[in-house]
Amino acid sequence: MSSDALTDNPLRAGMAGELGVAPAALVIFGASGDLTGRKLLPGIYNLARNRLLPSGFALVGFARRPLSDEAFRARMLEQVEAHSRHRPLDRAVWDDLARGMSYVQGSFGDDAAYRTLAARLAELDRVRGTAGGRTFYLAVPPAEVRTIVDALARAGLAAPPARVVVEKPFGVDLASAVELNRELRAKLDERQIFRIDHYLGKETVQNLLVLRFGNTIFEPLWNRSHVSHVELTVAEHIGIEGRGKFYEATGLLRDIVQNHALQLLSLVAMEPPIAWDADAVRDEKVKVLRALRPMRDAAEVARRSVRAQYAAGVVRGDQVSGYREEPDVARDSTVETYVALEVAVENWRWAGVPFFLRAGKRLAKRVTEIAIHFAPLPHPLFRNAPGAMGTPNTLILRIQPDEGIALRFATKIPGQAMALRDVAMDFRYGTAFGHETPEAYERLLLDAMRGDATLFTRHDEAEMQWAYVDPILHAWRNGEAPLDSYTAGSWGPEAAERLISRAGFDWSKP
Amino acid sequence: MTSAGALRLSDSLARIEAELEALWEPDSTGAAKPRAYTLNLVAVVGLDASEAFAGLVGEVAARLLARTFTVTVDPRLAPWALSGDVRAVCSVGEQRICAEQVELDFGVMAAQRAGSILEALTEARLRTVLLVGPGAPRDVVARLAPASALVVVDSARLGVGASAELAASTSGSVADLAFVRGRRWREMVARLFDEPTARAALPRISAVEITHVELPSGPEATAESALFLGWLGSQLGWRTSSGAVLDAAGSTVAVRRSTVVREDVAAGCLESVKITAGELELAVARDTDAEHVRCSMRAPGGAPAARRYSIPHREAAEELARAISDPRGDALVRGALAFAASAPGA
Questions:
Q1: Considering only CB atoms, which chain B residues are within 8 Å of A55?
Q2: What is the rounded CA–CA span in Å between residue A399 and residue A494?
Q3: B307: which chain A residues are within 8 Å (Cβ-Cβ)?
Q4: Global pTM value
Q5: Hey, which residues does B205 pair with through a beta bridge?
Q6: Which parts of A168-313 fold into alpha helices (H)?
Q7: What is the SS3 assignment for A237?
Q8: What digits encode the pLDDT tens for the residues B323-334?
Q9: What confidence tens digit (pLDDT) does each residue in A70-117 have?
Q10: To the nearest whole angstrom, how far is the Cα of A433 from the nearest Cα of chain B?
Q11: Closest partner residue to B236 among A6, A10, A90, by Cβ?
């Protein structure tokens, strides 16, 4: 049964369950991993608790580690109890979910394990009413993706309407992303592939599009005539959290910038899509990525990018060690934990408007925000008034934490004199709406199961993201740009200040 | 407190406005109260119930950042009197945010001008929600409803017929707290019909049995049970004729209502719903513990497939906040109310 069939049920009209999905089994590869325990299972439990899962639902864990069904359920229960946003656990919801949970042990290329999986899924169709619906969630490293998809195809499990969710990073560079796309698309239709970037599941990221295209006042100002520059910050106060091996192989450019940061930039810079559907939205995002001016040579990379590593410092009152002192990190590592870029979007709307992007670990605080800085006054009428800074207006879109929108503007201080002060009109989601925001993974799991790819990355989008960062990676790998250092707990290296000040601006302190 | 008995309503109104203005003046240290509102909430309530109702209104106002006006009519006041009590209600969270709470007591004649008074006091740029509380004077409600973007009733108190009448006369949206209370039951039943075999049998429903927890007053139909039938009928294109319920094809649907006595569930609430559709028997029934239900489907010759779900009790403030916040459902409520009011035994 397709998701469309749900719309045939007239009793579903007007219900939150309209977001619900057709009966389906969800198979998680990498079921014993961290992502499954911390995000996926709590997300599935929360969906079940909110009755957003279909009545015919089953969950199958697939991993190498030998585990009984019972042990798998017990493990997942522990994770849900530890990480769900709804506590205490609702036992009835869990018991019902657990009854539909089972485990298949096998290596990812083992055909016998996939025959067991196929038999299990057929049994679930009968016992749990999953009606042939299948979503395969690949919570595995990139190298395992093609192995699993090949094995699914050999087992006859990859045919539509089966869906495959692929976790980031999608490849390690442009060549590997192109190759991975080619291999996946040889076995699956593009409409079956869901490349996940959990940032797109965040409410505030989605609201960025509502702010821009659901209101009339912003869009006329959203262009080179009124915007002087755009700042995009993805800052974390945490370090690499024991993921030394992963970080040494990845670095922050691949971990954060290639996906999350470029997604945010696309959403800020894109043209209005012709409709709210997967291809229309992604068409416009791809156009932005195609308009990014590539860094053509090492000199340009050195001029328009900054990479740095954190040194020991104090973060939120605690003394922390430097990156090179972290476990599993080489003492002479040149892997970056901070990136700042000056990005040029070469199109009609944004020509000449620099986008400054910075992302880093062990910065002063955890904050993701986009600051749209509007052009300065054409004529400073109040330049002699006390307090008149002449500071241009800024619209700040806060993605996390304290999701909200703030607009900064000048006002007259009440009194006989003409004195000015900047004030902020501040909108906070938590204050205005008060209720709990669903986790990004909840929304994305649901979307994948019902086949809506609007909030997922399309093949050409992933490739264009890599196409932009590849020359930077190449120059860095060849040592053609310096590696700077910054003190943990600061806002990044001096070089980043110089990058933005050359254009006549300063970084905001969020 | 504004004194009662003023001859000119505009004088009373001016005093209330002055008190509202004074409320936001900075304190002796120069600090101002941060204020924010997202809607005007006008609650009309009977004099006897006003005190008990104020707590609920205040809680919802804090949740939704509403600017609240509680309206009562007091026959003890002079006929043209308007008495107002103004205060700021502040939610103390990470940030202290305040909103006005205004109690307006009208004399019986002044109540005829309640619409004009509220027109002056409400924030015109925000949507106005009219909450019809217990014992609300109907003429005041009728005067305020046309200017409201949303009218919230509780048909368990107001009656299904009166609620349907009010809904029919209102151009804004309508929400019904009794309908909100039945939301999970409707969801459970709708989910049963997601199953392809059940979906195919949906046009062949021949019998519906609705059981509710008996009211102290006796075994008459409750708003919750009437609205459930109303929802089912209106969604499936049923109609009523000569005391019978007919499906979209004109076949009779047997409707049976029954009651149980149960102390751990509020009187009037649903206890079970059983539906015969073709050869299938589908049921949602409250479990032995009140906060769970069992959903089951039985096909001929087969064992029933049953699942257990939680159906936790929600506080009244949460129900009300949900009714106000959820923009969907107006057509559902109107359809359910209209069908319920016309159904046999309503």
A1: 191-192, 194-195, 295, 307
A2: 26
A3: 55, 96
A4: 0.76
A5: B277
A6: 174-187, 203-213, 244-252, 262-269, 278-291, 298-304
A7: coil
A8: 887 766 788 899
A9: 999 999 999 999 888 887 888 888 988 998 999 999 999 999 999 999
A10: 7
A11: A10
